[in-house]
Automatic annotation (TrEMBL):
It comes from the Bacteria. It is an enzyme of class 2 (transferase). InterPro entries: Diguanylate_Cyclase, GGDEF_dom, Nucleotide_cyclase, Rev_trsase/Diguanyl_cyclase. Residues 245-377 form the GGDEF domain. The lineage of its organism: Bacteria, Pseudomonadati, Pseudomonadota, Betaproteobacteria, Burkholderiales. This is diguanylate cyclase. The keyword Membrane applies. Keywords: Membrane, Transmembrane, Transmembrane helix. The chain crosses the membrane at residues 34-54, 60-79, 141-158, 170-190.
Amino acid sequence: MADAEDTMMVRFAPLTHVLLGPPGPQRVRVSQSLLVLALYLGFALVLQVEVHLGLTSERLSLPLTLFGLMGCIGFYSTIRSGLNLRLSEPSLTRPQMFYSMVAVAWAFAVSGPPRGATVVLMQVILMFGLFGLPPREGRRMAGMGFLMLAAVIAWRSWTLADPAETRLDLVYLMYAGIVFTGVAIISVRLGQIRERLRHQAAELKLALARNQELATRDVLTGLTNRRAMLEQMAIAAREIERHGQPLALVLFDLDHFKQINDSRGHAAGDRVLQRFGEVALAEIRAGDVLARWGGEEFLLMLPRTGLEEAWRCAERIRARLAALKLEGGQAGMPLTFSAGVSSCRRMDQLDAAIEAADRAMYLAKATGRNRTELVAGPGLTEVGQGAAA
Ligand SMILES: Nc1nc2c(ncn2[C@@H]2O[C@H](COP(=O)(O)OP(=O)(O)OP(=O)(O)O)[C@@H](O)[C@H]2O)c(=O)[nH]1
């Protein structure tokens, strides 16, 4: 069954494309105008039935039929050609409603005994407006429709000799008044529902952004967290593999951080971690990513960067950190780190490159701290070059 539906859709796809245009908001507007055209054809058919039954004359109904047809085709062509996009209201809801109301008021004038039923058509037009217009505009349209009917009835009582017809028209007008008041009340309700939905959507968007932030950021430093870093490294590694470029990693571990915590307190330790993040961020390029990797460990990823360049970046951060004057509870504390640099050129070498950076960092710790060690990543020749600060 589903297969048959799919085959039908594929078969009619070119026709749908020609009639409705490419998918998007414009297609919704085109479909709407085609729907109006379809409804109008029903209306024209009923007019013909009225002529056939002798309830109205061909002379009176033909201009109305042509007026409606021209309007529907005109609105469809304007929207399908994209001319509507140059207007302040591309949906053309107001002009379409106004045009249709004129047609219905005209139908009331020429329809003979069944004219009371045209009030129902007016209601259908107003229903379209409920979804496309702000509530106040919807109510204004309802008022306008009522006035149009009232004007037609006034004109009829002026031109027709039979007072019984006018009495009947006034009854129709009263019914129209009830219908339009109902529409106005619904428009208020709908406006409240729309407002609540808008509010909920804004709140959801905010909550989603907050969740995204929580899921990808380290709470203390505001840096990328370990999980998000792993994802970003995978993306970057795929990218550099395609372009045959290296990706460098620098793993930083603050020296004797436990002592800072022990001597100045945990809050001072926290502040040091934050300051390190700020200093390091100021030294890296836009495409580089710095993450809090663990307690006092930070991992820097430098796409399209070789070992030497990454090493120089780490040393720039070291120099900045040395020049930093810590204040408050952290005043006078020496702030240094040991770092390990490695690199890779392929996605499947990423884990090994992280391990290599870790080994290099431990080498820096073992050989005196406050220094950066280089280790060629997997697939590259081991450089084994030490770099004292
Ligand atoms: N203030 C603070 N301390 C943390 C945080 N995460 C981890 N730590 C502390 O960081 C310290 C790390 O200590 P160690 O692993 O012994 O390392 P270290 O003292 O820096 O010594 P080396 O790395 O050998 O130079 C521990 O005392 C942890 O409690 C944090 O978020 N805030």
